Amino acid sequence: MKTLVIHPDDRSTDFLRPIYSGLQGTTVITKNITAETLMEVIKANDRIIMLGHGSPSGLFNVSGIGMGFFAIGAQHVDVLATKECIYIWCNADQFINKHNLSGLYSGMFVSEVAEARYCGLPSATQEQVDQSNDEFARVLGLTLGVTPDLGQVHSTVGSEYQLLAESNEVAKYNVERWYYKN
User: Is residue 146 a contact partner of residue 136, using CB atoms and an 8 Å limit?
Assistant: First the structure.
């Protein structure tokens, strides 16, 4: 399976790197690619993993991926519908539902203390946020390295991440917003 990772270069999302760092034969795009080339590369791959900051409208373009405000947005929906996809950005669930896509995806995902406060977790600490971020990325990366089945990946990551959620309010919030639609 040919896998493409689209992870806009942004120090605040470096914690996501373990998701793909151990995957063999993966093409990683982090910056400086034209919209046309991006579309060609997406078409040439079987699985697309999209990671970073985003909104219900798509994955934010913070490093010259494609053109415009979104590295991944409505203009990619038709081609993404033909691929096996993983969408990890805040409110990716709304993007998936709006465009009737399938795959493995997150809802609002707390990855910073300010987001925790905004999402009603006023006592969340930087340590809790870091622990949650690191465990999620570690478990997802390890699981993707073991099984190609996204339904199994969803289940395994949910179960493993739930263990941390028992003592970490940020992980508890995030695990409740971890989805799979076939």
Answer: no
* Residue 99, CA distances (Å) to 35, 79, 94, 167, 177 in order: 20, 12, 8, 35, 18
Helices 126-146, 150-165: inter-axial angle, 10-degree rounding: 150
Which residues of the chain have a pLDDT value below 70? none
Q: What is the pLDDT of residue 57?
A: 98
Cβ(165)–Cβ(171) below 8 Å: yes
**Could you tell me which residues come within 8 angstroms of residue 127 by beta carbon, excluding any fewer than 6 positions away?**
none
| Nearest C-alpha neighbor of 157 from the set 173, 127, 129, 135 | 135
Please, are residues 170 and 129 in contact by the beta-carbon 8 Å criterion? yes
pLDDT of residue 67: 87
In this prediction, residue 14 carries a pLDDT of: 97
pLDDT tens across 159-171, in order? 999 999 999 999 9
Q: Which CATH number fits domain 3-181: 1.10.3470, 1.10.575, 3.40.50, 3.40.960?
A: 3.40.50
Residue whose C-alpha is closest to residue 140's, from 93, 88, 182: 88
